[in-house]
Amino acid sequence: MTRADGELDEYGNRVFASLRSAAPIDPQVAAAEKAKFLLQGENLRQGLIPGSSVVYPEQDHRKLNALQRKQHLPYIKALVATILVLIFLVGSSFTVYAAQNSLPGQPLYLIKSWSEDVRLSMTFSTKAKLNLTLDYTNRRVDEISRLVASGKVLNDRTSERLQSELDNALQLAAQLDDPQMQNALGQIKRRAENQGITLEELINRLPPQAEPAIIHLQERLDEQVNLSTIGVKNPQAFRSELHERLRARQGPKHSPASDQSQSTPPGSSNTPMPEQEDGHGGPGNGHGQSTPGNGNHGPKPTDTANP
Amino acid sequence: MRNSPDQAILERAKRFEAQALEEIFDTYSPGIYRYAFRLLGDADLARECMSETFSRFLYALKRDSGPDNYLQAYLYRIAHNWITDYYRSKVLPSLPLDVNLRANPADEPHQVVADEMESQQLRDALTLLTPDQRQVIVLKYLDDWENESIAQTLNKPVGAVKALQHRALEALRRIMSRYEDINL
Questions:
Q1: Nearest chain B alpha carbon to A55
Q2: A89: confidence class by pLDDT, cuts 50, 70, 90
Q3: Does the model's pTM come out above 0.90?
Q4: Which of A2, A19, A85, A273 sits between 20 and 30 A of A146, alpha carbons compared?
Q5: Would you say residue B150 lies in a domain?
Q6: What is the rounded distance in angstroms from the CA atom of residue B131 to the CA atom of residue A278?
Q7: CA A220, CA A192: separation in Å to the nearest integer?
Q8: Do A272 and B84 touch (CB under 8 A)?
Q9: Is the ipTM of this complex over 0.90?
C-alpha cells in the first residue's frame, strides 16, 4: 500500500465512522417480514407441484385483499345472521322455517344451505362445529332418502355437499387433542356406519340411473369408517393419512397450463433487480448462473456523475 | 471468507423448502437491512429494500435464474441495485425533517444536528458514486468486508476492487470538501 493509499484508507475509516451505527431492525418487523417471505416461498413451492395454484407478486395484493375479505367473512356472515334473526323476529320467519324442510332442487333449499353455513360460521368451538357438521351429514342423507322416495334423481351438488361435510368432520376431529379426537372419531364412525346402512336400504328403491351416485357415496362412507378406525387406534397415522388424502384431492384442481398463463415475469414490476455494471458480470458470473437482471432502468446518472 | 459455497442450501431453496428459506432469511436479513439502512438512512426504506431483496431472490429461484453459489454476494447485489434505482428515481432532499437523530445525550444540540447533516451529506455523496464504487465503499468501510469477499461479490479481481476503492474515496473527498465549502 502506497502512502497515498494509506492516507485515503484512513480518510475512509474516519469519514464513515458517523454512518457505522445502524439500529437493528425491530424484531416484530423482522418477524413479519420473515413470515411474508416464508409465505411467498410456500406459494412458490406449491407452484412446483403440478396443478397447484401460484401467487405471483402482482397477485399478492389481490391475495391480501381476498384474505382481508376472508377475514371479514365471519363478520359479514354474522351480520347476515343478525338480519336473518331480525327477519325471524318481525314475522318473516316462515321462509327460513319452511326452507329447513326443503329438498335439493327446490327454491328454498338455497336458504337452507345458507342458514346452515351461517350457523356453522358462528360456532366457534371445534367440538360444537364437529357436532353440527355431523348433524348436517345426517340431514344430507335424509334429503337423499326423501329425494329418492319421491322418485327424483340425486344431483351432484347434494352428493358433493355431503362429501365435503364428511371431510370437514374428519378435519375438525384432527384439530382436537388425541383423546378428544379418538372419541370424536368413534362418533364419526358410528354415524358413517348408520348412514351407510340407510343408503344400503335405499339402493333397493333406487331408479337405475341414481345407483352409481349412491354407490359412490357408500364407498365414501366406507372410507370414513376406515379412517375413523385408523384414528381411534393410531392418532398420528390418522392425521398423516388425512393430510395425504386431502392433498391428493386438492391436487388436480388447477392445470399447470393455467398456472403458466397466470405468470408474469417479475422483472416487469417497478422494483429493481440487480444489474450488470460496466459490462462486468454480476454475482455468480462464471459460476454457471444468471445474473439477476434489471430491465427497467432509464439513463444512469450515477454511472457518470463523478464530479 | 464471508462467501462460503452455498450450493447445498441453494439446492434446497430451489425446492422452496421452508427450513432452508428460513435459514437463509435468518442468516442474511440482518446484514441486508443494516446495509440498506446505512445507505438509505431510513428504517422504512431499509425494510422495503430488504423485503424486496428476498422477494426477488425467491422469484429468481422460481425462474431458475437464481444463484448457484455465493448467495450473500447475490443478495447484496439485489439490495444494492434496489438502492441505486431508489436514488435514481427520487429528488434528493436536503436534511429530512423527520430524520431519526441518534443523539448522544452528552452532545450539544447544534452538534447533533451538525453530525446528522454530515451523515446525510455523506449518504448524498455516496449516491453520486458509480454503483460499484458505492458498493465497494460500503462493504469495506461500513460492513468491514475483506477485499477478497468484495471481489467475489462484484465478480472482479481484487486489484480492480482496490482501484474502485481508491477512485471512490478520491471522489468522496472532493464531494465532501464541496459540501464543506457550501456550509461555510
A1: B59
A2: low
A3: no
A4: A85
A5: yes
A6: 10
A7: 9
A8: yes
A9: no
